[in-house]
Specification:
8-stranded parallel beta sheet, 5-stranded mixed beta sheet, alpha/beta, TIM Barrel, Sulfite Reductase Hemoprotein, domain 1, 15 strands
Length: 348
């Protein structure tokens, strides 16, 4: 397992042996402090652990002061083009994210580094395939190698300024290129890696692309924090991120419902019951696994592996708890009994 340098972002640490942290980014106009604060609270309730806001202008920088006072979540300022905004934001945030390819020359980057030093915050080098330095794009094209070369160049620039609190991301909308870039950089540096597939698309498409890309890398032991980028409500990004981590057994968040895909063998409406159970248990924070299985082919095995399980039979259905059969119940009792057992587990 790859071990990375530990970096502190507010009250969250990433890298080292810390859990994979979940990030998101607000899509409100940052200059509207009230709306941005409201969305940050929604993200926090959903399970977001680090939140990023874009700071594209001086109005947004002014609002950042208010936002800082109204959230305890680790706050990251996303800066493009204007290095002065990065310097101003450094006083109010727990990390700066810059894309060195569009922040300016070395002197401007040096000033940003000095601001980060003065305020004791880390920097994320956010390299994107769509905004590479012109010389690197000319030499390497739009490739994974180009992403890596850009990251290494900018890591060196920060290190030359005696700055080592660095997080690195190398993102593209192309999943194979992104995977390859992270695989390459993971062998060349021990700075923590922020994973994501940029411009991944809508809720459906982006979920698929992000799950494949981020999940593939995490399964190889690569990655220290993740952000699922979706053209959707940012709260959906948190839901997908949690499910990716839970699917890989890297973290557990509340109730996980497993269910069979249904077929002619199903002895009750698996899809309907699964949907109702997921909705009714989404508020439960206690890690809990529930199995909804329509027949006895794979049902008993899955139910034994779960904390609570139901296995469909012809005349009645078997309710499992902690690997043991609890009793036989009828279809109209399934939801009520599962919810009762889930509530009991949650309260214990």
């Amino acid at each position: 397992m790859r071990t990375t340098k530990e970096i502190k972002i507010g009250n969250i640490s990433i890298g080292g042996n810390n859990p994979i942290a979940i990030q998101s980014m607000t899509n409100t106009l940052t200059r509207d402090a009230d709306k941005t604060i409201g969305q940050i609270k929604q993200l926090e309730e959903a399970g977001c652990e680090i939140v990023r806001v874009s700071v594209p202008d001086t109005e947004s920088l002014e609002a950042l002061k208010i936002i800082r006072k109204n959230t305890s979540l680790p706050l990251v300022a996303d800066i493009h083009f204007d290095y002065k905004l990065a310097i101003g934001a450094a006083k109010y945030v727990d990390k700066l994210r810059i894309n060195p390819g569009n922040i300016g020359d070395e002197e401007k980057i040096k000033q940003v580094v000095n601001a980060a030093k003065e305020n004791g915050i880390p920097l994320r080098i956010g390299v994107n395939l769509g905004s590479l330095e012109k010389d690197i794009e000319k030499n390497y094209g739009l490739t994974a190698k180009a992403l890596v070369e850009s990251a290494l160049k900018n890591i060196k620039l920060l290190e030359d300024n005696n700055f080592y609190d660095i997080v690195v991301s190398l993102k593209a909308s192309d999943v194979p290129k992104t995977i390859k870039a992270y695989q390459m950089i993971s062998k060349l540096t021990n700075y923590p890696l922020h994973l994501g597939i940029t411009e991944s698309g809508s809720l459906f498409t982006g979920t698929i692309k992000s799950s494949v890309g981020i999940g593939s890398l995490l399964s190889q032991g690569i990655g220290d924090t993740i952000r699922v980028s979706l053209s959707a409500d940012p709260v959906e990004e948190i839901k997908v991120a949690k499910q990716i981590l839970q699917s890989l057994n890297l973290r557990r968040f509340g109730v996980e419902v497993t269910a069979c895909p249904t077929c002619a063998r199903s002895n009750f409406d698996v899809a309907k019951i699964t949907t109702e159970i997921e909705e009714a248990t989404k508020h439960i924070k206690t890690p809990l696994k529930i199995a909804i299985m329509g027949c006895a082919v794979n049902g008993p095995g899955e139910a034994k592996e779960a904390d609570i399980g139901i296995v469909g039979g012809k005349d009645s259905h078997l309710l499992y708890k902690n690997g043991e059969i609890l009793q036989k119940i009828q279809e109209n009792e399934i939801i009520e009994r599962i919810l009762k057992e889930a509530k009991d587990e949650h309260q214990n």
